[in-house]
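Shift notes (night). Ran DUF4065 domain-containing protein while the centrifuge was going.
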Amino acid sequence: MISMPVDSPNPLAGAVLSILVAARELNLPVTEAHLVGLLYLTDVAAVEAGHPPITGATWRLGRCGPYDPALTRAQDYVVESELAERGADESADAEAGVLSLTMDVDDPLGPDAMRFVRTVVALHGGRDTAVLRTVVDATVPVVEAQAGGESGVLLDLNRARRRRQATALLARAKARRASMPPEHDDPGVGAIVKEEFLQTRDALRRANAKALDDR
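Came back to this:
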């Protein structure tokens, strides 16, 4: 069993390996296109849950979705270190080769981070590239960045947290309203209001007439 060296020269290598570890457990192939999407969704899931991002990537909006050039270097590092290898992908939707571990590797991230990684890989790791891209494009940071129409813009992952918080608050407000007893007007309140209006109607008419004459 191999552990990631603490002084790894590429800080994103552990994030790359974490996806490969979780995918191997489920016997799922991971293309290089899948890898980026799964890492991004892991960061979004963590932020939505109130945690800081996990991967350490600086996400920008590119032509093919979120990206960080440092992730390419991280992939190269794990391959050059012989912890993983690139292989051909025979699926029709492949955009890049398959990355797979060459040996057993300890969890490269902490328990909390690996929990998010394993959840995301279980949910989305078996999707084809087109479907995974749809999931990524539907996240709040990507939707808002695409609305701005600028390529290369930084993705604000905190947008996902704020949208989730607003949705939760709205749900709690609706639940609270539904649990409250129905409101009823006091008996006779309509008649009382009508009577008060009739009593003041003449005084209001005189005041309005005087105000208009004084102009």
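The mean pLDDT is 81. The CA atoms of residues 26 and 104 lie 14 Å apart.
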